[in-house]
Amino acid sequence: MAFKMGQVTVIMAFMVTIARAIDVNVTGEWEPERGWEVACSWQTLPNDTLQSVRLYFNDQQFMVYRPELHGRRVYDVLRGTDKVMTVNCTALTYRAQEGQCLLLLEPIQPPDGNYNYSCEVSGERPWFRIAKKDYVIRAFVPPSDATLTSKQQDDSSLNRVVMNCSSAGLPAPTLSWTVGDDKVQADFSGRSWSQTSKLWHVWSYLSYTRNDDSQVLCSPEVTSDDEIVRGKAAEYNSANNLSLIGAAELTAIVLTLNNV
């Protein structure tokens, strides 16, 4: 009986050793005009050696780094129709006991949802210790602060103003107008995906007749995972009018935007 209990103690100690053998950490952030940068770093025990690092994207393995095959560094670019993934794995110490894999995920098309990323680190024989960390790349970028421009129509009274509000984010932000305490409907709204910024760019036009000094606000917001995130609203100020605009020019603007 004592032998069996000793056996259990040895097994439990073995399991604890494995559980604490490899530290894996995954962090990520959005890099403007580049995409998501995700870093997987690891550290093994001093008596261990790295065997491999396996990277998974949406539960599919897409990259394996093995120091005995690749040396101290491996670099690869994987191009798809909707995204480009650039991977750079580097061993930082002897026997690759410490290192890091950097993933740059650049969306070419608007993402349909979040991405699941996993990093699995394995040690060498005789222990073959393994540690894995999962990470969700959230397809979300808060809306940028709203920007507002305004022009007066030259064929009406000076109180007639055309305002254009714009913002950017992921998913596409919604722009809402309020005059005083009342919500008002925009005359025209549109959006386009930018492969430069990797974001949705949205705009909204409102033609408004000033009858008093009521505050006019354009507010951007994005809904993601049942969470509403608002950007800084832009306020109309009659002192910021840029130029006069004719009815024909206004019509041309709207027609052009309709064709985007």
Automatic annotation (TrEMBL):
Keywords: Signal
Signal peptide: 1-21
InterPro entries named among the record's database cross-references: Ig-like_dom_sf, Ig-like_fold
Domain of life of the native organism: Eukaryota
Record's protein name: Uncharacterized protein LOC112049051
Gene name of this polypeptide: LOC112049051
